[in-house]
Design a protein that fits this description.
single chain; 400 residues; alpha/beta; ten-stranded mixed β-sheet; 18 strands; Metallo-depent_PP-like; Capsule_synth_CapA; Poly-gamma-glutamate synthesis protein (Capsule biosynthesis protein); CW_Biosynth-Accessory
Length: 400
């Protein structure tokens, strides 16, 4: 079979998506119609209890926001020229700033010079952004970003080095890429109210020649033989372990067997939250042995124009003093590159489309109601994460 070049592959994919679009629209329409006529279902009957016997929410000891692919160049660059980098976060700023920790996938290098002065990868779309991106991320509330992705090495080692410098200058840690293997495998530790959180990054989709080596810059590949010891090390030294992983198939909302196998292996090794990205569309969430696997967090800042690439979500993790934890899913719509919350009645149709993508259970089924609760304009899953607090107590007793 003749190998297709990049433009041919994109044309084939676009034709497939056009065929699927009517089906996706019809499904979402009838789901939304069901929502609008189900007044009791939306009126708060399924509100999540705080688990405190009706005395109100337990005290929150940690909150973290996780988002998907951030692409600040190309057509988004025109928005930046017109309104500035800060404007990209206007629609979600309050949610980001109210979280203790915020992390996402920084899906391009940040260049400090003219792009023509850098080496370039061949036969692919090249992405980059400018110096102001790092400071804007920090100002918006980000506390770490993943650099292990398919675009970080678009402009070679120099482009990646510029990215690291800009992030250091903004006091914003990056994980999953580096000047050498030791640098790329660095685990970031951050403390919130006595809880130590470890963050690390890796990619299962690696462009030829971009994987980090002992003395060569690059991205950390998701080779389980080498990355599982890193996760185990993080688990020993932290109370909560967050693993970014770039994986899956672009524009495919299905979880592939390889993703599931890797995600569960990471959880078995000690990951509490696995944050997936790369498909540019949402994929279901899995709760596995107390861990959360977000198979794809979709886009967050993007100029991609298909409905499924514009409909996304903001994922928030909340840990309470009594050991309860919530995963909250806030539906988003990306317009002109900028995410905004799908609030109010106008967003009902698109919210249901988002819920359809992030859940494995059929909407309105008993299985769905057992797994998820509707709380305002978001979905909430409640779980017992008292082990996180017990881990903190045990490690404090041993002085870490």
């Amino acid at each position: 079979m003749k190998k297709l070049h990049f433009k041919q592959r994109m044309l084939r994919w676009t034709k497939k998506q056009k065929k699927k679009a009517p089906l996706h629209t019809a499904v979402a329409f009838f789901l939304t119609l069901g929502v609008l006529v189900s007044v009791p279902f939306l009126s708060g009957e399924d509100e999540v209890s705080a688990g405190t016997g009706g005395t109100g929410n337990p005290k929150e000891v940690l909150s973290m926001t996780m988002v998907g692919d951030m692409m600040m160049g190309r057509h988004v660059g025109k928005v930046v020229q017109r309104s500035g980098y800060d404007s990209l976060f206007d629609g979600v700023r309050s949610h980001l700033r109210s979280s203790d920790l915020v992390t996402g996938n920084f899906n391009q290098p940040l260049l400090l010079q003219d792009p023509e002065q850098y080496p370039k990868l061949q036969d692919k779309i090249l992405l980059h952004t400018g110096p102001g991106a790092a400071k804007a991320l920090k100002k918006a509330g980000f506390t770490s970003v993943n650099l292990a992705n398919t675009h970080m090495m678009d402009y070679g080692g120099p482009g990646m080095a510029d990215t690291q410098k800009a992030l250091r200058d903004a006091d914003l840690p990056g994980v999953g890429a580096g000047r050498d293997r030791y640098d790329a495998e660095r685990i970031v530790y951050q403390d919130v109210n006595g809880i130590r959180v470890a963050t690390l990054g890796m990619t299962d989709v690696v462009e030829k020649g971009t994987s980090v080596r002992q003395n060569r810059p690059g991205v950390r590949s998701a080779n389980l033989k080498s990355v599982l010891p890193l996760v185990r090390s993080a688990e020993k030294n932290a109370d909560l372990v967050v693993v970014h992983i770039h994986w899956g198939v672009e524009y495919d909302s299905n979880v592939h067997p390889r993703q599931r196998a890797i995600g569960r292996a990471l959880a078995d090794a000690g990951a509490d939250i696995v944050v997936g990205h790369h498909p540019h569309v949402l994929e279901p969430v899995e709760f596995y042995k107390g861990a959360m696997i977000l198979y794809s967090t979709g886009n967050f800042i993007s100029d991609q124009g298909w409905s499924r690439t514009k409909e996304s979500a903001l994922f928030q993790y909340r840990l309470f003093k009594d050991g309860r934890a919530w995963l909250e899913i806030h539906p988003l719509l990306i317009r002109e590159g900028r995410p905004r919350l799908l609030d109010g009645g106008w967003g009902a149709y698109r919210r249901e489309r988002v819920y359809l993508q992030v859940t494995d259970q059929p909407l309105f089924s008993e299985a769905f109601k057992r797994m998820w609760k509707r709380k305002g304009n978001r979905l909430v899953h409640e779980m017992d994460h008292s082990r996180i607090l017990k881990a903190r107590a045990g490690k404090e007793g041993g002085n870490r």
